[in-house]
Design goal:
Blueprint lengths: L1 E5 L6 H11 L7 E5 L12 H8 L13 E4 L10 H10 L2 E4 L4 H11 L1 H4 L7 E5 L1 H4 L28 E3 L12 H11 L3 E4 L3 E6 L2 E6 L3 E4 L4
Parallel strand pairs: 1-5, 2-3, 2-4, 4-5, 6-7
Antiparallel strand pairs: 1-8, 7-10, 8-9
């Protein structure tokens, strides 16, 4: 997969250009599947958040970017659907748009549904993450972002990438997410970690990692 890991959706021209570059064609010619699942998890989950994400009425631009088509892939429904059907939906999509919410809940359902097992074969698919939709691909999220203890009892996630993410840096909605807090969080992560704000995304391709930003970010524990 080609990844665009955002804090709060595709919020500026630099991030939009990065997305178009990853797609290799205009957004208006691309088909997307949105995955609202994470919005139901954790103590703050409610039915309104996933609806706003799906309908393009959230403050975090994802589904409303002008796609040729947008479908909904609800991970909790997949175990009850013939696998060949839903796998074909995923393979035919140009992009997966993954909602924020509870990263550990999302991690569980990505594994339980079988979607995570498909990731290595989705070479040309563009994965666009929003908050938990981004952090779920990292090795671990850190105790600061654990809202609900999973059955495993730890903060490990899918490990698709080899760095962690501290989203919502200096966000008015998350006043506790200061740079000082990010530094303390990174000290406990034990590996490379990016702190990013709403105007920043991390792009990952076979060519490497690139930070796309019109805002503020910092890399902690850079690889030697």
């Amino acid at each position: 997969m080609k990844l665009l890991l955002t804090d709060s959706g595709v919020r500026n021209a630099s991030m939009l250009a990065a997305l178009v570059g990853l797609l290799g064609k205009p957004i208006a010619e691309a088909d997307a599947l949105c995955i609202p699942t994470a919005g139901y998890g954790g103590p703050y989950g409610d039915p309104g958040g996933p609806w706003r994400f799906i309908s393009g009425r959230s403050p975090n631009p994802m589904t409303e970017l002008g796609w040729k088509s947008v479908g909904v892939l609800e991970l909790t429904a997949l175990p009850g659907i013939d696998k060949e059907r839903w796998v074909s939906w995923v393979r035919e999509a140009d992009a997966l748009l993954v909602n924020g919410g509870d990263a550990l809940y999302l991690c569980h359902w990505m594994r339980e549904s079988g979607l995570a097992g498909l990731f290595p074969s989705l070479r040309d698919t563009v994965y666009v993450g929003l908050s938990a939709g981004s952090t779920v691909l990292t090795p671990r999220i850190g105790e600061h972002f654990v809202d609900r203890k999973p059955p495993t009892g730890d903060d490990s996630t899918l490990g698709v990438v080899d760095f962690s993410l501290f989203p919502h840096l200096d966000s008015p909605d998350c006043p506790e997410n200061t740079m000082a807090k990010a530094e303390r969080w990174a000290a406990g992560i034990g590996g490379p970690a990016y702190a990013i704000d709403a105007q920043t995304a991390v792009k990952v391709t076979d060519d490497g990692i690139e930070v796309v930003s019109e805002g503020h970010w910092k890399l902690f524990n850079p690889p030697s």
